[in-house]
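If you are new to this repository, start here. Below is one unmodified record pulled from the training split, so you can see the exact layout before writing a loader.
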Amino acid sequence: KEPEPISNMSDTPDIIAPDGSEIRLLKSPIEESSMVHALIHPGTTTHAVHHLTVEKMGCVKGEGKLWRKNADDESVTKLAVGVSIEIPLGTTFQFRATGNQPLEIMITTTPPWPGGHEAIRVEGKWVPSI
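And here is the target side for that same chain:
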């Protein structure tokens, strides 16, 4: 069965994520995961967070940067339309929206997102602005 297209996404966020990004809840086509649309306004930087159990993957629209750091590696990835990203379990991460349009990320979490207690704010590479 093909996944249903995204429809009727709210103009206003359903929640604000622990990192400060605007979250709109979506129905995941995979029962073992959850899916959201995250929006980061132009010129803003999220708080850095570390997740306790979930891993994330996303595809972006807009332009930005993703900083990731774990015990083995630290990197900054340029984000642009069509770029897929992975945030392995145990990775600290932070987003920046660097373009003139919002940075939009489709995020799938596996296992499903358990709630706001899942993300712990930590010190990041950049000073947060949201």
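Two things worth knowing about this chain: The longest strand covers residues 103-110. The chain has no helices and eleven strands.
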